[in-house]
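Hi R.,

As promised on Friday, here is the backbone we talked about, encoded as structure tokens. Could you run it through your design pipeline when you get a chance and send me back a sequence?
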């Protein structure tokens, strides 16, 4: 560190502030609380993204089922067959 201070004098002030910071129990506790808070937020954000991605995949699958069922209905395929192929209920297929 002394070499860095020689090259850049402002680093001496940085080093003093850092040393005061790590010596202060109160400041360290506040820092740790902030880190825990940020870590918790990151975990929640990651979980929300994961759930959003899963929800998007489910919506995409449902849209594909509906599109497939509509196309099959246009071809006059039996509703029970459409239901089996798409995974939609007979009632859902009838409503399309």
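Update: got your reply. Pasting your designed sequence below so it's all in one thread:
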């Amino acid at each position: 560190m002394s070499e860095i201070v020689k090259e850049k004098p402002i680093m001496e002030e940085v080093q003093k502030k850092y040393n005061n910071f790590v010596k202060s129990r109160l400041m360290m506790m506040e820092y740790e609380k902030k880190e825990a808070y940020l870590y918790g937020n990151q975990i929640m954000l990651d979980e929300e993204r994961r759930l959003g991605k899963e929800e998007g995949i489910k919506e995409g699958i449902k849209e594909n089922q509906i599109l497939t069922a509509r196309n099959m209905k246009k071809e006059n395929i039996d509703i029970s067959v459409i239901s089996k192929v798409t995974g939609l209920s007979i009632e859902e297929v009838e409503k399309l």
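One thing I noticed while checking it: Residues 2-95 form one domain.

Thanks again,
M.
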